[in-house]
Design a protein that fits this description.
29% of the residues lie in helices and 26% in strands. The protein is α/β, with parallel strands linked by helices. The chain starts with a strand and ends with a strand.
């Protein structure tokens, strides 16, 4: 088969479409013929040499895919060769074939195109696990999403609105904020021109955000704490703004607030399977009903993964960038 390899870490040009050995499914695994994958920030970090796959995972980038089951490993039940699926991966999505633990498979939701289903697993599992399973966003509460026009952001807006929450977003342009509004965002904050702490305070009559989904990390840590409501929950899922920040413990105590920080890739298989099962139970019906949809900025041929990384790094996209297998 062919896959995107990284012979040496570096810029987008470090991504090379090359012939590699076919993967073979082991016990509890399935082989998927990939139709499409999607680009995530973690893939960029891996390309740069900063985010290696966990032990035993595919060395190729790609944390999600869609396709058809080509073979079943020993002990797999509930799936059949030819089933159309999408999958949460620890790596290997930028390839013509990938091996997937059966617990990380999802059927393609009714009404969603097979290619576009590749835009779902990583973002839906990230949002559902952090915003709902950990931070317990409830109807009537306010969610603040940083990077509202990203793949994560566009999904977080839709899921929060589907459960009856109010949604505030930050983004860097008027056009991106307009896209967020179309998805249901109630409060639009241009982080280049406005102070999100002041804006969220004004929009909530001084109460603050009950849950904040943050992709920035250190840069926003102190301001996020100040933007939280009493009993608020800050869910950190990224470090685009740095890895070390200063935390005002007194402010956190005064608000009786909580901070969580998670990533999906290195979690044990049992935890990933539990998240995938929860997503299938709670989110897949919303997709089938048309209440939630994948947001795709563009599709590119998989051998042109370098261009897809350039698009993501330029941050002009809205939603997901897909890589379509030849």
């Amino acid at each position: 088969m062919h896959a995107i390899t990284i012979p040496e870490p570096g810029g987008p040009e470090a991504l090379v479409w090359d012939e590699v050995p076919d993967p073979v499914p082991g016990a509890g695994e399935v082989l998927v013929e990939v139709v499409a994958s999607a680009v995530n920030r973690a893939d960029i970090l891996q390309r740069q040499g900063f985010y290696n796959p966990p032990p035993g995972a595919s060395p190729y980038p790609g944390l999600e895919c869609s396709g058809r089951i080509a073979a079943l490993g020993p002990g797999v039940s509930g799936w059949a060769v030819g089933d159309e699926v999408c999958a949460l991966l620890s790596g290997g999505g930028y390839a013509e074939k990938v091996v997937v633990p059966a617990g990380q498979l999802l059927p393609v939701p009714r009404g969603v195109d097979l290619k576009r289903a590749a835009a779902l697993p990583e973002v839906v599992c990230t949002v559902w696990s952090n915003v709902f399973m950990i931070a317990h966003l409830r109807p009537g509460e306010t969610l603040l999403v940083h990077g509202g026009s990203s793949g994560i952001g566009t999904m977080a807006i839709q899921l929060a609105k589907a459960v009856g929450a109010k949604v505030a977003v930050t983004a860097g342009t008027k056009e991106k904020l307009e896209h967020c509004a179309e998805l249901g965002a109630d409060m639009l904050i241009n982080y280049r021109e406005q102070d999100f702490v002041a804006e969220i305070g004004q929009a909530t009559d001084g109460a603050g955000a009950d849950v904040i989904l943050d992709n920035m990390g250190a840069k926003y840590l102190d301001r996020n704490v100040h933007a939280l409501a009493v009993n608020g929950r800050l869910a950190i899922i990224g470090m685009q703004g740095g890895i070390k920040g200063e935390l005002n413990i007194a402010a956190l105590l005064n608000k009786r607030a909580a901070i969580s920080a998670t990533s999906l890739r290195a979690r044990p298989l049992s935890e990933k399977a539990a998240i995938v099962a929860a997503v299938r139970e709670h989110v897949w019906p919303l997709l089938a009903a048309g209440q939630v949809r994948p947001v795709v900025d563009r599709e590119l041929p998989m051998p042109e993964a370098a261009e897809a990384h350039r698009v993501l790094e330029a941050s002009g996209h809205v939603g997901k960038v897909l890589l379509v297998a030849p």
